[in-house]
# Entry
Amino acid sequence: MTDAVQDAAPRRRLSPEDRPVVIAAGFVLAILALGTAYTLWTQGAATLLAPAYLLQQLQVGSFLGIVAAGMMLVILLGHIDLSVPWTIAASAMTATAVGGPFAVPVGLAVGMGIGLINGCGVAYLRIPSMIFTLGVNAVAQGVMVAQTGGFAPQTAATPLMQYLAVGKIAGLPAAVFVWGVVSLGMVVLLGRTAMGRAIYMIGAREAAAYLAGVPTRRVIVASFMLCGAASGLAGTLLAGYSTKAYQGMGDAYLLPAIAAVVIGGTHILGGRGRYLGTLVGVILIVLLNSVLSIMQMPEAARQVIYGSVIIAMLLVYGRNDKVTQ
Amino acid sequence: MSGGFADLRIRVRQSAGLLTAIGLCAALYLFYNLNHPRGFSSAVLIQNSNEAFALAMVAMAQTLPVLLGGIDLSVGAVLTLVNVAASHVMNGGPLDMALGAALCMGLGAACGFMNGCVVVYGRIQPIIATLATGAIYMGVALFLRPSPGGNVDADLSWAMTNDLFEMAATYGFAANGEAAWFRPFAALPTPLILMAAVAALVWLPFARSVTGRTVYAIGSNEGAAYMSGLPIARAKLAAFTLGGFLAGLGGLFLALQTSSGAADVPQAGAYTLNSLAAVVIGGTSLLGGVGSAVGSLFGALVLRAISFNFRIFEVDPLLQPLIEGMVLLAAVSLGAVRVLRVRNTLDLFR
Amino acid sequence: MAEASQRAARIALAGVSKRYGGVTALDGVDFACSGGSIHAVLGENGAGKSTLIKIISGVVRPDAGEIALEGRAMRFADPASANAAGIVCIFQELSLVPDLTVADNICLADPPRRFGLIDRRAQRRRAEAALAAVGCEDVNPLLRVRDLALSRRQLVEIAKALARDPKVLILDEATSALTAADVDKVFDVLRARRDAGCAIITISHRMHEIEAIADRCSVFRNGRHIETFAQGARGPSEIVRMMIGREISAHFPPKPQKRDRPAPMLETRGLSWEHSLSAIDLTVGRGEIMGLGGLDGQGQKELLLALFGVLRGVRGDVLIDGRPVALTSPTDAKRPGVDIALIPEDRKTEGLLLGMSIADNLLAASLDRISRGPFIDRAAAARAVEDGVRAMQIKIGAPSDAVATLSGGNQQKVVIAKWLMTRPRVILLNDPTRGIDVGTKQEIYRLLRQLADEGAAILFYTTDYEELIGCCDRMAVMYDGRIVRELEGAAMTEHAIIASALNIDAQAASGARA
# Structure
């Protein structure tokens, strides 16, 4: 075993990083096609292809998209953030409680603060992220429940929050713009900054990154803070969308965010993945959900289809190397 | 040098996690009983065991994939699916019910087996594979029972959720529970006996088998396990199947306990996440290769004991989630103590 | 290969070939090893030794050719079937399971059973017997392998293999972490097995061990079997020539003439840590190559790690270019003004990011140098990669290829190139040529001398005495965490090193053989 000359990767026209993105995009088109066929058959119109409809889907998807962006950073490190549900809720509730011009910054700050706690626990205390963020989620829930008395806070979302979530800029939903800004930030961070490279390195092998002089702990804390900020932003926007915050508003975002990141080709153990893939993954999930509701699928069937699609896609490309030594 | 005392010291050191969990559980439960107006009574013990059984089973189920170095996000869904199935089949005559029980257990095992196949043959990481299969199982459960309901045999339900005396009385053995030889066992709660039976008759033999040891080996160093010629695929499949089976047992009992089946999505999620907490509290490492389902069982009991304590101290229900969360965080942070003692930073990276 | 020896062979390969993608690992190889003999396999990395072993032990399947065990053709689907046929391999990267006990590991694949379950008591007895056979009675079978020192782990690995009573035993660098005394014990056991009829194949880069143990030697080069001969029939330079295929003129680059004591670049005063280091006072001058010698595990690795900021709770002072520096992490050690680099022990888990490309690996330590602000300057990055590849003459396809596709020697070059890009003033090397072929070793020696001539201070730990004497200007021999002897110039002899390593008074030992 002194010398492992493994199978030299044969040159493909599509690099292994790009394949999942292309395949996911293919699935998106397939879902659009199926849905359009269905609407043509039942309604005689291609409702799915209408621009207004597509924009609305993007608007709904932007909340999930922002959460998934943050989650991707953490998954690239080889970690995971299970505190997303109550980071969303806590940010939303705090933002609406504070109100006024500081609402949005406070929402972001709450998210970042929770992210900071997560980061310190994972980077400095070396507690597995799965269980630490789970605990932080429970504590966040506890604090919020104690604060709000278990009810949905009565304070309404500020006009800015509502505008960002529901309003339009130049005919396009403002939420999509926010998602776009976050996406731009992700592409720049991952592709063009030293911190982005460091994230991939830590996910590939933390010991080697550490010995190369990368400040691994700071990068981990910063990544968790960004993930928390993303959840905070999503929570603030969600409160704007529903005009107020409510208990459990973030619960529906955790598993789809993880699924979107993984479907997009990011390896769940870290070190590999492209943001474009996560973007496509989010669109896929949102589209799938909406097509299924147009088809008026009962919840039971939806769950089964949702799970099967994830497995099918992963079978097509997410396979691990066989352990042969 | 092997000497009895040196061996004992080594064994104790290696079982530190399990012993801590047992100690914690004992301390919490003792505290609870001391402060309970009707503490140390069999009625309280029976009620507590009923509440603890399902979580204990799910915690044991979660232990297996964690030992492999992965995680199973579908344990709550399997519990729910079998619960719902049981609400359909656990009625009728004794033969019907026996077949029904077998069906339920088989269903749990089948779900586990499917998880295993996706992981082994699909070569997909367990966390995302079980996230997907969990959705599928939940969907099937929703299909079988869109709204809560069902019909579970009342006698069986009574017998399984009380003490052995009631079981004997319901089914007429040991002179309806009055027999003299039966007296010392009569007050033991059935769920507690069942828990012990599952641990002793299902888990321990598995852990001592070659397949069971292979599971530990895979979690510790899969490459070394392969090099040594261990049956990797078989062990992974067995681990997931056993996990599904145990989760199914929890679901079956839940049906008997509540006399109904409900495809409750939030409840399934709560069971899954609590099972993770129980596994960690019980001393099993999330990195794999170290731990035991018995520890997870006690971890589940610790979680339940905490909530029991809330009840008698009439802790403001608004504060309960906060305290539970802090306790969980504290429990898992105990592992951080070792980090402070590490002198060579490279040891922190596995 | 004579027909007669083929027929008598315990294990024989005929016409075996194996390709990995575009690389031919083995090319029509005929090889045979008879029962009752110890057969050494020699060759550079990339020569095919590891592939040969993997094929014999069932880890990979050949593309062509036949394997015959005791005259019968065999096809192994996986290591389990090879084990079942009586072929056992001891790997360099141990096949022990860290979280299981020693007893579990020794009986891992085929434990004694009772009622279908593992019989722990019988297993323990078997383990104790196996451990005693390699002279390891002090290891309690109940201990977890994780809690054992590396040398004990290697002995457990050997005990585990021997306990299976193999017909063919393969050792792949199996003694690399053992002390000389342990190695002697193991060799006694191997000779006893050989006399009992076992066929033993051994791979080692340590010529003195091969001379001590082997009966026959085979040389491989570029995937071909070159020659098999009785041990002693060919001299070392002939063997090297066969391995490399060309004449080796000078083994080590020439050292500069003795000059005045150079200005100190790296200085430690009273460096101590836990039980591993006590009061180390060391000075390495500008342009000097300083060697660390001594037996394994005497604190050499810990000293290098301490100088790189990896250890916590280090007492004492470290001075770079006369100024005291704080070293709390590799980030500290690397920073401009300090400029320390470490080539770590295990390139696969510490030196390289195996899942990433060659370019990513080369830039791993230079992210700050190729950045303007938070952003990476892609042009600067591409230039740096090109320069690195050229400077080290690394044989690659494209910089975007996965680093895992390179041979061991080229991978090590990537690790070194990564650090050279940071223009270090102090270079620490932890056994950099372990498992590396002779050709690449030479290149590394030349490079080190060149770096020293350009003014770097080099601290170099190796377990190979020849290397130590050939490369270093000075050396410090360590024993039990202390420096017991410093040697310089002509005083650096193998004799002196071993005497100090064993902490024997040099005078008293002068009459004894080295």
Remarks:
- Chain A touches chain C at residues 1-10, 188, 192-195, 197-198, 200-201, 204-205, 207-215, 271-272, 324-325 (CB under 8 Å).
- The longest strand of chain A covers residues 168-169.
- Chain A has a mean pLDDT of 87.
- The CA atoms of residues 121 and 132 of chain A lie 7 Å apart.
